[in-house]
Amino acid sequence: MRPEILFPLFAPVSTLKGVGPKVEPLVERVAGPLVRDVLFLGPSSLIHRTPTTVDSVIDGQVHTLNVEVELHTKPMRMDQPWKIRTFDGTAFLTLIWFKGHGEHLMRQHPVGARRVVSGKIERWGNEIQMAHPDYILPVERAAEIPETEAVYPATTGLPARTVRKLALEALSRAPELPEWQDGAWKAREGFIGWRAALERFHNPQTDADLSPLAPHRRRLAYDELLAHQLALAQRKAARRAQPAPVIPAGSLADRIEAALPWKLTGAQIRALSEVRGDLQSGERMSRLLHGDVGAGKTIVAMLAMADAAEAKLQSVLMAPTEILARQHFETIAAPLEAQGLRVVLLTGRDKGGVRTEKLMALMDGAADVAVGTHALFQDDVRYRALGLTVIDEQHRFGVSERKRLQDKGESVHLLAMSATPIPRTLELTVFGDLDVSRIDEKPPGRTPVATRVVPSPRMGEIITRLQEAVRGGAQAFWICPMVSESEFADLAAAEHRVVELRKVMGASVGLVHGQMAPAEKDAVMADFAEGRLPVLVATTVVEVGVNVPNATIMVIEQAERFGLAQLHQLRVRVGRGRRESACVLLYDPPLSDTAQQRLDILRRTDDGFLIAEKDLELRGGGDPLGLKQSGFPAYRLADPVAHRAMIAAAADDARLILNRDPGLTSERGQAVRVLQELFDWRAGGLTDAG
């Protein structure tokens, strides 16, 4: 039950003054459906209204001026503005209104009236103008014009000033709440109370007050991080409390490992040891295995599956696309079957008798391992003894999809895999409820990808070299940022690039992009993966993890427009075989300093984790590494980049709270319960990895 003290904040936004049926959907679009959502919507900038005289104004700045109305000029045509000429004793200022303003201006501001006006100054020839003043008031009401005014996000039909009024009303409803932060930590960080921090949040006086590093903003961010980490820690503890089948390390996996044509890397050995520690613990495993594409995650998962099979338990490996599922099947089937295990591939393509035979093998235990897509958790799929689920690119599955697969067995162990390297500083926000294993070494035999940075005027040379390479049997990716020309962005279009390349190379150039039907996209990707298409032009939808060992060339057009980690994710599409590979980063000169640094880093290293950290440093905010697609939490007050130094502290604090008071019954525990309800982050309500 939500505590009564929070009821005012969880009232609908329609309870705020002026929010009727027409305005309500606009407020929901900007902030959300609750008063709390408006409370957590902060200003994005400040307007400084500098009082001055007309002869001292600065073009483009906002000023407040004390003037006298001298003349009204009515428009002669509909497309002309209404003008009021004013004078302050130093120079003339023309006030301008377009569309729909008229006689009422003359009534409200007659000639001879003294007015205080405030707004943005613009010079038009020799004339000093102010279009649609923010304020125009009688001089006796001058105090109503703030010298500093916070600017809030807005939308069509809901101006920023209205949003500000709603935010301040939401603030007036915010109660004093019991302190949930540790007293020593609060004192050390110099944090003020929650309610006082919100006051500062909505009433910034300087630009420094808007910084995410301002003390009051850090306080509010820590509250949100703590609420999130508490929920993650609670869920982790709940999972560990569930008894699960004990799966010992077996000789079967050792035989499979010994038969591999290469030795495991140190990172793979370490990761496998951590996975086996979980499987033998008697507690339900919830572990993430992450590392670069091609780092050997699937091999670690395969050996864990062999352990499960030796313990008379079944395993499933689920991938988001049929291409990836088929690729995993081809990787693990032969080694497992060589030791007498049966592996089946189950996808949406399976129909009739073929599908029935596979389902029977899973139900009666004849199949030890199933690899597939969403087909693995359909209602008619039954497992005799499911003990281990492996989910590749787990963030690409919905909560209910992952749960449906987990529910096919009892206390099933979970091993999630991700090919998006996450910086250590952000791991806890994305994977705080999972134990994490990193594979940060390349397997032996991988050829380094030679990375070259080339200005776009030399594209002709690149195409010529591409022709020669294709004639020699190579395959190549060509990545473009957009699908088609856009009037809003001067980007090379993938469709246009296909046409241009086909003029030179014939019909051997394929195209994939995000607007294609999944089956159509899979068919083109399969043609490329199987060598029938030498060149594939693509937007950034190129499947993570798709293995095309023969692809040795990656050309990325307008590389300066991509994020560093995104460039790396594209680059690792090549260099999967033993042939020399190259990545060409085409850029439109001149490069900005940040873009130059980004491309230089790619030239110097192919370490995905190092690149992820550097990307974080260079971006400093926004959506680092495309994390919105990687299960990243949607914070309201915390900036995971700017506040990353506090994430580990919040995780430690959460563990300490739960170790001392797992039921949250102490005085601080009760306050923490309020915090969790405030942010709606409770263990049961989080996006679940398994």
Can you give a write-up of this model?
Among the domains are: 50-145, Nucleic acid-binding proteins (OB fold (Dihydrolipoamide Acetyltransferase, E2P)); 251-439, Rossmann fold; 449-605, P-loop containing nucleotide triphosphate hydrolases (Rossmann fold), CATH 3.40.50.300. The chain has 22 helices and 23 strands. The radius of gyration is 31 Å and the shape is globular.
Structure summary:
This protein is α/β, with parallel strands linked by helices.
Q: Which features characterize this protein?
A:
disordered C terminus, alpha/beta, 690 residues, eight-stranded mixed sheet, Rossmann fold, OB fold (Dihydrolipoamide Acetyltransferase, E2P), seven-stranded parallel sheet, single chain, 22 helices
Using DSSP, what is the number of strands? 23
Share of β-strand residues: 15-25%
CATH class of the domain at 251-439: Alpha Beta
Structural class estimated from helices and strands: alpha/beta
Sequence stretches where pLDDT stays below 50 over 5 or more residues: 487-491, 621-630, 684-690
Task: Tell me, briefly, the overall form.
Answer: globular
Mean pLDDT: 88
Name of the CATH homologous superfamily of the domain at 251-439: P-loop containing nucleotide triphosphate hydrolases
CATH architecture annotation name of the domain at 251-439? 3-Layer(aba) Sandwich
Report the C-alpha radius of gyration, rounded: 31 Å
- Looking at the structure, the CATH topology of the domain at 251-439 is Rossmann fold
Tally the helices. Answer: 22
Largest sheet: 8 strands, mixed
What is the first-to-last residue Cα distance?
26 Å
Task: State the share of residues found in helices, binned by percent.
Answer: 25-40%
